[in-house]
Amino acid sequence: MFYDTEILIRKQLKYPPFCDIIVIGFNGLNEKELIDISNRTYSYLKQNLNGEDEENQKFKIFKPMPAPIDKIQNRYRYRIIIKGVMNKKANEVLNNYLKEIYQKDLKDTRISIDVNPNNMS
Fold first, then answer.
1. Does the pLDDT at position 104 exceed 90?
2. In this structure, how many other beta carbons lie within 10 angstroms of the beta carbon of residue 80?
3. Among the residues of the chain, which ranges form H helices?
4. Domains of the chain (ranges, CATH numbers)
5. Residue 26: closest CA among 73, 66, 79, 67
6. CA torsion sign, 26 to 31 to 33 to 37?
7. Can you tell me the mean pLDDT for 82-87?
């Protein structure tokens, strides 16, 4: 009974297994730099990931926001959440962006991408 209820809720909310949730995490010592890079990432994703996926469902890209625990060991934390089906195009867009961003000197900013994370903290 739990499964039947849970799977209906997940289908209505477009949660896994009916779509993927992609979390792009940013953390760093300089909050201003972190906000800037997360906003640039958001703009890039809106321009390059705005096509439709294989099942004709658009990606939903949420604006950058502080993580639920917004600072750990003096490092600020922000994230972007994306809902959609992780396909070849989405993988290419994310990989190309990471290559581009890591060629820049970001001082102390780290970026991570987690597909269908176990928790959202």
1. no
2. 20
3. 2-13, 31-48, 88-102
4. 17-115 (3.30.70.260)
5. 79
6. positive
7. 88
pLDDT band at residue 102 using 50, 70 and 90 as cut-offs: confident
CA gap 115, 46 in Å, rounded: 18
CA distance 10 to 16: 7
Q: Which of 68, 83, 106 is nearest to 16 (CA)?
A: 83
Residue in 2, 49, 40 with CA at minimum distance from that of residue 22: 49
pLDDT at 57 over 60: no
How far apart (Å, rounded) are the C-alpha atoms in residues 64 and 25?
9
Q: What are phi and psi of 30, to 5 degrees?
A: -100, 105
Model-level pTM greater than 0.90? no
- Tell me what the mean pLDDT of segment 83-103 comes to: 87
Extract the tokens encoding 115: 């597909």
